[in-house]
Amino acid sequence: MNLPANVALCSVPFDAHSSFMTGPALAPTRVRECLHNGSGNYWTERGFNPIENDNFSDIGDLQFSSYLGIADAADGAIRQGSRLLTIGGDHSISYPLLQAHRRHYSDFTVLQIDAHGDLYDNFMGNSYSHACPFARVMEEGLCDRLVQVGIRTLNPHQRQQADKFGVEQIEMMHFEEKIQELHFTRPLYISFDIDGIDPAFAPGVSHHEPGGLSVREVMRILHNIKVPIIGADIVEYNPHRDHHGITAALAAKLAKEILELMMR
Ligand code: MN
Ligand code: MN
Question: Which ligand lies nearest the alpha carbon of 207?
């Protein structure tokens, strides 16, 4: 697979499909502030500087006028010759983002880090809720394999949906054994819901689900990825729930580390 060398940071300030509280629309500004405020440097843990790099650009907010319009906005940005790391927004945005990616990439896996499966057929009458995007993704065949890591909220309906769509799930209660067996062969799209991480490390999310991943466990997963990355999103950061920007700092760190995976 021939991937563009350029990687663009973009943002989607959208939280209209959040079921419980709004806030993720405010995430892009806070994450960018944190990335550039001088409290840390631009280098990753493994010694790569993705920001001061000729292949990096920050193209700001994607321009769209409706939820489903996010797909054309992302498609336009990809057509400019970049892979995209999208920050901000609730998790509903991953469905139109993956519609856009599918127009360009025929064979890829999605790695979803999340406390939740986001596989509801509909949630409170909304089939585009942030509880539903991966049901839509699987119905439309927008990826070739979906692997969810960090899951700890499944109910019978969501288990049924996972079976129906053939979704692979590494639930937290089996994390230590199952993570050893996780291997990727196809290129990867990473969809990173911050609430996959334990609220002790990431309080700035709408849905606090104890018993989640540590930041270090997430870093091990990322550092073990050897396949090319076609795109990524970091969603569900909610500044209203954060304490002293702890979660903004985490989102900024994840952005740098995922950019390294995309650019190295
Ligand atoms: Mn999610
Ligand atoms: Mn979630």
Answer: 2
Alpha carbon 3 to chain centroid, angstroms:
19
Taking the C-alpha atoms of residue 60 and residue 188, their distance in angstroms, rounded to an integer, is 23
The closest alpha carbon to 145, from 114, 166, 116, belongs to 166
Ligand 1: centre distance to CA 253 (Å): 19
User: 53 C-alpha to center of ligand 1: Å?
Assistant: 30
Q: How many residues does the chain have?
A: 264
Whole-angstrom distance, CA of residue 1 vs CA of residue 133:
26
Per-residue pLDDT tens for 211-250?
999 999 999 999 999 999 999 999 999 999 999 999 999 9
Question: How many Å lie between the centroid of ligand 1 and the Cα of residue 130?
Answer: 6
The fold of the 6-207+216-253 domain, in CATH, is Arginase; Chain A (3.40.800)
What the block records as the tokens of 160 is: 């049924």
- 137 exposure class (CB count in 10 Å sphere: 0-12, 13-18, 19+): buried
Neighbours of ion ligand 1 (CB under 5 A): 91, 114, 116, 118, 193
Tell me the whole-structure pTM to 2 decimals: 0.98
Strand 83-87, strand 7-11: pairing: parallel
Per-domain residue ranges of the chain: 6-207+216-253
